Amino acid sequence: MHQCRLILWNIVLVYENINDSTKSLSLCLRLFYRYRDLAPQLVPLDYRGRPAVTLPYGLIASMPELKDNPFRQRIAEVFSERGDGNMTLDDFLDMFSVLSEMAPRDLKAYYAFKIYDFNNDDYICKSDLEKTVNKLTRNELTPEEVSLACDKVIYEADVDNDGKLSLEDFQHMILRAPDFLSTFHIRI
Amino acid sequence: MGRGGATEAAREVGAAGRRGHAAPGGLSGPAAPRTELLRWQWREVQAPCLVAAWILVASLAKIVFHLSRKVTSIVPESCLLILLGLGLGGIVLAVAKKAEYQLEPNMFFLFLLPPIVLDSGYFMPSRLFFDNIGAILTYAVVGTLWNSFATGTALWGLHRAGLMDPGVEAGLMDFLLFGSLISAVDPVAVLAVFEEVHVNETLFIIVFGESLLNDAVTVVLYKVFNSFVELGPAHIHATDYPLHLFLSSFFLVSLGGTAVGLLFAFLLALITRFTKRVRIIEPLFVFLLAYVAYLAAEMVSLSAILAVTFCGICCKKYVEANISQKSRTTVKYTMKTLASSSETIIFMFLGISAVDTSKWTWDTALVLGTLFFILLFRAVGVVLQTYVLNRFRLIPLDRIDQVVMSYGGLRGAVAFALVILLDREKVKAKDYFVATTIVVVFFTVIVQGLTIKPLVTWLKVKRSDHHKPTLNEELHEHAFDHILAAVEDIVGHHGYHYWRDKWEQFDKKYLSQLLMRKSAYRLRDEIWDVYYKLNIRDAISFVDQGGHVHSAAKLALPSMPSRTSMSESSVTNLLRESGSGACLDLQVIDTVRSRRDKEDAAMHHVLRGSLYKPRRRYKASYSRHFISPDKQERQDKEIFRQNMKRRLETFKSTKHNVCSSKSKARLKEKGRKKASPSQAPALFLALRFGLPRDAVSEEEESDSSETEKEDDEGIVFVARATDEVLQGKTAPGSLDVCPSPCIIPPSPTLAEKELPWKGDQADLAVYVSSETTKIVPVDMQKAWNQSISSLESIASPPGTESGPQHRRFACPVLEEQPQSASQVMPEQSSCFQFPSHVSKSGRSQSDSSPDGPEQQELQPLMATEEQGRMAPSVEPRWLMFNRASHL
Description:
By secondary structure, chain A is mainly alpha-helical. Helices cover 53% and strands 0% of the residues of chain A. Chain A is globular.
């Protein structure tokens, strides 16, 4: 009990602007526990000094539940601040708040876009899409099938005709399907 | 199902049996002594003949209803059928002096209900259903319980208060029994009305799912109360039937029914895996096993509706993958036909049954009280449950949804059949209940069914939009599922996505392996599936147009204005900024204005050289009795390949002629040789330079021979547009990593955005309009095709990366070409700067020499290269003007 209070207090200290409901306290606490459970030897209970602790990507990748998930690395990369897949507590909380119900649509769209944008050039271009399709189909398609499918995807969504999807294209497409982004959330 | 009234059921069966026996008995008498050539054997065929006659009458009536679009758009078909039934029942009553026909519960539960439930289960959007399963279950279980108890108790209170006729001899148990049967929302009625209202999917699935799943609750309640009533009020003690027994019975009935459904779904999937040699009986298995599931559940008095629903939901994925395309179509149509005819008969017989006044006893207080309480408690229940549910829903059900949900709680034939099943000996007030049920059913189906449509319109309930799945949606849906599951895993939260992900993995690893053919397994990949479907659909529409050239043009043309409006309405700020939006509009308008007959011819030529011939073969063989699935698959593949090839070709041609000077020279030659009238070569070249719309628009204008001034604008406009096109190409070109297919069909992309499945059709339309419009004669057309093919042979098959390089080359080449060709060029370039001047010189040039138009088209390209910044300043005005003139 005492330990719990301590942690809570720590977190309050660290995140002063915690009043928005996406990072409500109990949730924060749970997430912190989870974060710590992933690597108890690395993460200290005392967070007051803002220790520069990161959760190495290897730990996340080694989780048995994630073994089959095609996007595990990409998620870790996108949400980690430095893009290397190693997550700090901040990143961890961010990931959750983006996917919470309260997060605005645009933010969600932005992160979804980032996840697709494998080469970080701010466009979803064909190679990105090919990667996505390959991941989703577990490499069961031949290269030209994938390439054709990607062409079609771009063709469908490319408003400004530049052969790749910009963030605007992506948002436009997503807004067209009203309950599209609503699926992009996690409920605790 | 053992819906209590075993004795009644036995009587029904007995009656049927007696009737059956009567026939041979009647026959044997007169048959013995004489031989006759013809004999009147009505009695032998009576029963099936009557059934057939009723179905025929109902179906003919349906045709009559649908003769008038106006009537059916206002009045739901179920209302009309009930009214028709009333009329027919009245006639029968008047002729036979007694009501002969009515909806018999046995017939209803054994024959009429299963097809409807199977149809709804099989075609249930399973993802939507399972996404909302929490809400559906809540409404189905809690809502139905609440409704029946509240209604029963309130009616009993009304009775105790002495407001009812003293002839109504009923205790609390009787009223609770009545409440249980009257409070369940009816799937048949809901489906019939909501299908015509088109509310959004979520709302529909909640109401409809509730109506399907509440069956278990209804069955249990009905059974329990019926047994109480049969025991008699004196013997009931609270301990006789304790709560836990009720609960366990409820779980047994619902989960047992579901389990039976799942079991048969599994069997069905497994069986269809091995039907490769006997394709023809595939559909039979679907119907047979589903029906056996229904009967099996009914036999052990589990919820049969749940069994069939879940059988349908669960088997669909595997069955669809296993059976052949033809069987799929057969299953679909047969199911729809059966369900629709069942529904028709049910509603008609509801009407006919109502005429039978011998079973009625009217009591105003009971009827009005029931109506009032039903509506009230439904509304209260919905509001309360929604309040709770909304705390857990991402998209809350708002007030309007709640209104529609409470108002959409229709009662139907299930309630009627159940009330007929009551035992008159035990339930003294049966006649009152029958009358009340009939009134309630009629009220909900007719009054609420009639008013729900205006209500939905008035409340501006979000309607469903029937858009076909785009590849994007499919792709992102999958990706999101994975992403969310991953995040839930990382965070260690076992939520909805976690379980779905687990289920999908299990399905992929074990179930699909077990239940699907090896060949079907790979194809099943959903993204690929959608893509495949899109392509096939494109191909079919393409060939449909090719097959009937004349109708094709007529079909294509009306679609253009709609596309115009769509693109205009949806042109976002984004588009306006990029500037290409304006062009898109123009192009579309031009297409609209093109002349039909010529377009017909043009279409014909495009299609004759088009690449979908295999499809035609495919269609022809479709009419044959049987084709081997392998062949069909091969043909599908062929079509697909053709589609691919065509795409590549269009891509190549548009891309490469921009840059290859060689082909242009040849083209020019050809243009001279053919010496085609007017500006054909110009159009030609313009097209090949990727500015079809402007060329066409110019043609338009010169064709329609409007004022001089407009001609001027036309030419200047070309310059502007070229510039624009180039801009479009070069502006984002800084990041020109991937090839831009944008040149292929410059305009339809927007239309496609709106109608994504129309991809190739739109493509086609543009090609028709731009390539060949009006002026280009047939031989030119051929030349064009030839040049394209030669081009392809020249140009190395372009790897996608080679695109940008070529394009970068394009400008210098273009610059040099015209200079070597003629000296007219400098003049014209100056013309470009002074728009008003251009037209005359340009026009005269074009008239005098065949080269002129080419120059006209080439020159702006070059000019824009040199003085690229000129045009934009001029642009807006011309743009506006041009628009105005077209609109």
